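Loading example: each entry is read as two labelled lines plus one structure line.
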Amino acid sequence: MFIRIKKKGVSPMIGYVLLVTFVIVLGVVIYNWMKTYIPQEDLDCPDGTSLFIKDYSCSNNSLNITLKNNGKFSIGGYFIYATTTPEQELATKDLSFYITENFSQLSPTGVKLTGEYNSLAPNEEEVDIFDLTGLTETIYTIEIVPIRWQKEGRINRIVSCKNSKVREVVSCS
Amino acid sequence: MKKSVRGLSPVIATVLLIAMVMVIGLIVFMWFRGLTQEQITKFGGQNIQLVCNDVYFEASYSSSGTLSLLNSGNIPIYNIKVKVSGEGSFTTKNLEEFSDEWANNYATGLDQGRGFSDEITFDSSANEIVLIPVLLGNTEQGKKTYVCDENLHGYKIIL
């Protein structure tokens, strides 16, 4: 007795369709896995962003700071910190809570300069007043980090200009 | 005695074959998923391992025992792991285990621009600390923390 074996198997057309489907599915899976590893552009201030403390005065628990934009790009605000002990190397006491103009205070921290977004153009100056009545510690130095609003896609994000930090030794009690 | 040599019908054999392939495929898929790490992303789908490269913070430990931290970068730091090394051994703990100030006032971590300062006493045998940033990212299951690589992103302070 002979057994007839069917040797045709899957038709070539179905074979191609299966192959193409496998490749597409595999491609989609690998793409979804790999796409998160594509590095995005790091948000950073442009070189040449600079802010300096032109003048300051302390009197009656009030700190007046005159800031000047001596860089090439407009600035939108700044983070301001102080050291409260002489041996403290890094200023961490946040002074933005003490600014007298409430609308200038950013959340959770930072001071926004007057005007829309990056309002302090090169060579312009701004005077900010800080009421230090509630501050019990003595201030030894002030550190200021400029900030800018920069577009990331459709969102305007605050960008810290960490390389433009300025430090000023002050004597306020 | 007449022996039947027909065996299974081709339809049943095909169904069995497809079922077996599907089961094996499923097992391999589940095994492979377990091998690969769960993806944690931040800022619109960027892998958190890459976000760690953009973390920038400053730290110092003064002679009077004050640990100061300042997040002057653009990435919010959710937590800090402190690795304390000394005399051939080390321990790693979260910062809130050393500092009540951090535990009480830094529930959301060190946001962009925020500073932290507190008196912290380490063991007398400790000779080095490494501060390792921990970030909060998104997964399919919700928010999840990710500890950045100590060697690449840790901040070392010699005591």
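Chain A touches chain B through 36 residues (CB under 8 Å).
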